[in-house]
Every structure is written in structure tokens, then in C-alpha cells.
Specification:
Layout lengths: L11 H8 L9 H27 L1
């Protein structure tokens, strides 16, 4: 089976392009807000269902 991965250090020009590539932009906290709110809502719902089952 052949290996398709080309190591950027194997070629000087490829390595320079790899080394000087800009890093990916970090994920903003605002982008995570809907995920956190949704996870909190699911957690509250699960606690409510567990309490309802325990008391019912």
C-alpha cells in the first residue's frame, strides 16, 4: 500500500511554505455560545425527567 503523505521537510520549498503558513483562526467564544446553551438546556431537561421519575 503506498503512502500518499508528503513530508514538507523533504523539500526545502515545501517546508518554507509549510513553516510560513498562517495558523488557523481560533474559534470565537460567541460561536460556542449556542452549543453551551443547548447543552445546559438538555442537562436541565434530563434532571427534570429524573426527578419526575424519582418522585412519581
Amino acid at each position: 500500500m503506498s503512502d500518499e503523505y508528503m513530508d514538507p521537510s523533504g523539500n526545502t520549498e515545501q517546508f518554507r511554505a509549510f513553516a510560513h503558513a498562517e495558523p488557523a483562526a481560533p474559534v470565537k467564544a460567541a460561536a460556542r455560545l449556542p452549543l453551551v446553551v443547548g447543552a445546559a438546556a438538555v442537562a436541565v431537561l434530563l434532571v427534570a425527567v429524573a426527578a419526575w421519575l424519582a418522585l412519581g
